[in-house]
Amino acid sequence: MPPHLSLLGMPGSGKSTLGRALAQHFNWRFLDLDAEIVARAGQAIPAIFAEHGEAHFRQLEAEALRAVVARPGPLVLATGGGTPCFHDNINVLNTSTFTLWLDVPAAVLARRLERGGAARRPLLAGAGPQLATSLAETLAARERFYSQARLRFTETRAPLVALLPALAHAGFPAGAPV
């Protein structure tokens, strides 16, 4: 398996923030799959959703994912919240990377996203006061995909300090400093 680490989880779970910290710790490259999709499509994600719909976005996402995981060299990849749930992406991720599910309760996600993050996300933009309910429902639907990750991580405080030993215990990454 290539030494890629993929972070899975709901919007607001900390994939990008923790991914950058892990990449810095391991001295690896960090890549946000949403940024890769934007670069390839030449459009922001809300514009892709508005002009072409979610199905088109999910196809672009699957293509970008397959291109990214085929790259040589170690990297930490922050996936989109729905990435594992479409186009057999969970199997692509598990075959090509070490998958880590950042399992954060819906109530914590809602608190984080209420600070402005929901408005930037097409599938959450209209949730308004129902944000916590919407997140809980989405998490319940996605859990069967997320639970296929190689490692599930539930710590929401001091995550890097707690995550490094969990990764080492799970055998990732072989030979990398912890």
Automatic annotation (TrEMBL):
GO biological process, one term: amino acid biosynthetic process
Cofactor: Mg(2+)
Binding positions (Mg(2+)): 16
Gene3D superfamilies in the cross-refs: P-loop containing nucleotide triphosphate hydrolases
Pathway(s) this gene product operates in, as recorded in its UniProt entry: Metabolic intermediate biosynthesis; chorismate biosynthesis; chorismate from D-erythrose 4-phosphate and phosphoenolpyruvate: step 5/7
Protein localization: Cytoplasm
Parts of the chain that traverse the membrane: none
InterPro entries in alphabetical order: P-loop_NTPase, Shikimate/glucono_kinase, Shikimate_kinase/TSH1
E.C. number: 2.7.1.71
GO CC term (a single one): cytosol
Record GO terms (molecular function): ATP binding; magnesium ion binding; shikimate kinase activity
List of residues binding substrate: 34, 58, 81, 142
Catalytic function, reaction form: shikimate + ATP = 3-phosphoshikimate + ADP + H(+)
CC cofactor note: Binds 1 Mg(2+) ion per subunit.
Family indicated by similarity: Belongs to the shikimate kinase family.
Role: Catalyzes the specific phosphorylation of the 3-hydroxyl group of shikimic acid using ATP as a cosubstrate.
Quaternary assembly: Monomer.
Name this protein carries in UniProt: Shikimate kinase
The organism of origin for this protein: Hymenobacter coccineus
Biological classification of the source: Bacteria, Pseudomonadati, Bacteroidota, Cytophagia, Cytophagales
Gene name tied to this protein: aroK
